[in-house]
Write a sequence for this structure.
């Protein structure tokens, strides 16, 4: 097998394939893959590869590469100077490179952010969860799960040609600019439920500015602060952007508090913030070329008229800067509604891009009966697995049904989902396997303290939850001391309702006993850094962060790994078939350890010699509902006191200007 020597790697060059790791959204694994899939696929076509063959994505500055045998390459994406043996060559065309010659890809200039390099036959790389795409935050895929480094050696693959090498035609090339228009579909969470009509008008009328703090997880934007149609998110959090955790779509415009972020291919699969619009699959390539200082305008389009993401030529409409639109779907993102077969619960079907339908049950409250309905629907869909189904991702009271829009139209999917609903059993019949997983918790761990300090230095120093999240939790819930927070957290038994919040098997879980449900709000703006396996509370939910990354939950401590980074090597507590520790409907029970003890436990887990105590059992919704009935009076008294404390905290926020509308652009 021939090799490629990396003489200069560039600041962030990674191996990617297309469409990436698309079938693990439900456990918090993002698809990764090229952020500009169009330029990537065209590069492969230029050298005769299959469109999805592994190649390189390079950010801002490309690499210098040397080949040990004659080969053919192509460079696409942002316009750059490309040379072979010091002589200028063209982008968007097959380039012959002789053995020993150096391919030098320069720096992006006035427009565009990323370049793509395809090599005839492809690049060999680690296959992990059905893809070779690099996810650097998760440390897997590509070259050892990281960006390339100077001195690396890559193996050239020898996949058979999918077609002849050829020049990419001018009508096929994407049009790059500094003033972008992005086609968006309305939904899933728009006006008038979450945003005011004026907010949506602002969204379409504003030229948002791309913030420098943007990457493959998401593109942060500067724009007007929403007015909001609600005063808060109820049990989901004090800010009106907060909702009960639900599945996201790549390309969703996610309002993390008042800050809009376009979620990228390395972004989270699950979270508790509203998304009023979603970039169409055909236009998501543009997100990979947005650079700091560029402007972005959102253009609403009808789903029935969106371009196909499968197309690469003029049918994709990528060679035009302007988005063609006859207007938006006039449904505020709500595709339809029905009721459950027993007539007790409203079912709402929301558009989440042109490739997802978000099925929501009931009112915006925390009710385990709604999660039971989500489970029943997921089982029903899995039993049939219709053509075009990609993944099912459950949230607290919702199920995201993702399809290949080129195989199953959204209207067809909607009709089928309504048929499925009519066939589902009563939620009260739910009895599922439910293990109790005993995990260590280092209370107020030094790593979480460091994250708060970083937030105060780099993001916001005057937030009500700073400088100590645990004191904020105490105040929010009307407790006498932080010792009460400690007692409640360790006494609680947390039921896992979702995985992947945030990333890599990270659970979103809720105490089974409502008296243990400490409610907080999420950071606004979100943190830019969270230590791996930090434990936090947001709204009524507990989360274990699966890896380092952004976040918004209020810290209480840190625990051991919930993702086996050794996979496919075995690790104690983890099933050999997959790298995630927890399952839906598991129960998490904490036991206290010191910070030093936790470091030892984490080292043991990382080496595959740790221990996780797991006890088998079941969860019965009927039994849980009987528990609630038996303890209703006491639960009501305690919850009422907590709600009074939150109202007082909210008033303090309001009096202090926390909810005041800011003029100008916010991020």
């Amino acid at each position: 097998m021939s090799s490629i020597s990396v003489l200069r790697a560039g600041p962030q060059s990674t191996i990617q394939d297309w469409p990436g790791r698309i079938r693990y959204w439900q456990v918090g694994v993002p698809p990764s893959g090229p952020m500009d899939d169009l330029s990537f696929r065209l590069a492969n076509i230029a050298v005769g590869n299959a469109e999805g063959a592994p190649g390189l994505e390079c950010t801002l500055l490309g690499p210098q590469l040397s080949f040990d045998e004659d080969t053919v390459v192509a460079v696409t994406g942002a316009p750059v100077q490309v040379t072979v043996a010091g002589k200028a060559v063209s982008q968007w065309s097959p380039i012959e490179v002789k053995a020993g010659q150096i391919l030098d890809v320069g720096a992006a200039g006035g427009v565009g952010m990323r370049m793509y390099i395809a090599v005839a036959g492809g690049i060999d790389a680690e296959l992990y969860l059905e893809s070779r795409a690099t996810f650097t935050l998760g440390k897997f895929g590509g070259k050892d799960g990281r960006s390339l480094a100077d001195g690396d050696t890559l193996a050239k693959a020898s996949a058979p040609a999918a077609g002849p090498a050829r020049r990419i035609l001018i009508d096929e090339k994407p049009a790059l600019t500094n003033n972008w228009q992005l086609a968006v579909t309305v939904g899933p969470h728009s006006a008038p439920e979450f945003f005011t009509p004026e907010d949506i008008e602002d969204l379409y009328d504003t030229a948002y500015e791309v913030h420098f703090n943007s990457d493959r997880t998401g593109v942060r934007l500067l724009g007007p602060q929403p007015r909001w149609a609600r005063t808060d998110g109820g049990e989901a959090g004090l800010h009106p952007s907060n909702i009960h955790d639900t599945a996201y779509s790549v390309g969703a415009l996610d309002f993390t508090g008042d800050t809009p972020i376009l979620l990228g291919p390395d972004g989270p699969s699950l979270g508790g913030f509203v998304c009023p619009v979603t970039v169409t699959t055909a236009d998501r390539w543009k997100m990979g070329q947005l650079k700091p200082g560029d402007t972005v305008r959102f253009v609403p389009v009808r789903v029935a008229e969106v371009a196909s993401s499968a197309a690469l030529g003029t049918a994709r409409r990528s060679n035009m800067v302007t988005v063609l639109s006859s207007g938006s779907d006039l449904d505020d993102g709500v595709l339809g509604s029905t009721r459950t077969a027993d007539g007790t619960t409203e079912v709402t079907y929301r558009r989440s891009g042109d490739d997802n339908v978000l099925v929501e049950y009931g009112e915006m409250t925390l009710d385990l009966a709604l999660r039971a309905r989500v489970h029943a629907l997921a089982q029903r869909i899995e039993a049939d697995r219709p053509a075009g189904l990609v993944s099912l991702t459950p949230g607290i009271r919702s199920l995201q049904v993702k399809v290949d829009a080129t195989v199953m139209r959204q209207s067809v999917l909607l009709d089928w989902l309504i048929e499925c609903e009519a066939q589902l059993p009563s939620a009260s019949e739910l009895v599922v396997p439910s293990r109790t997983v005993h995990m260590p918790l280092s209370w107020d761990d030094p790593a979480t303290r460091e994250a708060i300090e970083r937030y105060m230095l780099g993001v916001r120093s005057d937030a009500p939850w700073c400088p100590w999240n645990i004191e904020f939790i105490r105040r929010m819930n009307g407790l006498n001391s932080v010792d009460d927070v400690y007692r409640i957290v360790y006494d609680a038994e947390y039921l896992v309702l979702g995985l992947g919040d945030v990333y890599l098997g990270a659970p979103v879980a809720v105490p089974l006993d409502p008296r243990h449900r400490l409610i907080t709000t999420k950071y606004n703006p979100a943190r830019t850094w969270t230590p791996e396996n930090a434990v936090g509370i947001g709204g009524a939910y507990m989360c274990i962060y699966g890896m380092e990354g952004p976040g918004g939950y209020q810290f209480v401590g840190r625990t051991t790994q919930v993702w086996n980074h050794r996979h496919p090597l075995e690790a104690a507590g983890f099933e050999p078939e997959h790298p995630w520790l927890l399952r839906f409907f598991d129960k998490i029970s904490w036991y206290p350890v010191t910070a030093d003890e936790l470091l030892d436990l984490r080292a043991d887990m990382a080496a595959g010699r740790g221990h996780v105590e797991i006890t088998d059992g079941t969860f019965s919704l009927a039994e849980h509902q009987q528990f609630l009935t038996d303890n209703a009076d006491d639960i009501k008294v305690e919850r009422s006191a907590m709600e009074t404390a939150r109202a007082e905290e909210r008033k303090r926020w309001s009096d202090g200007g926390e909810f005041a509308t800011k003029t100008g652009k916010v991020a």
In short: DSSP finds ten helices and 39 strands in the chain. The first helix runs from residue 37 to 47. The chain has a mean pLDDT of 94. Residues 3-160 form one domain.
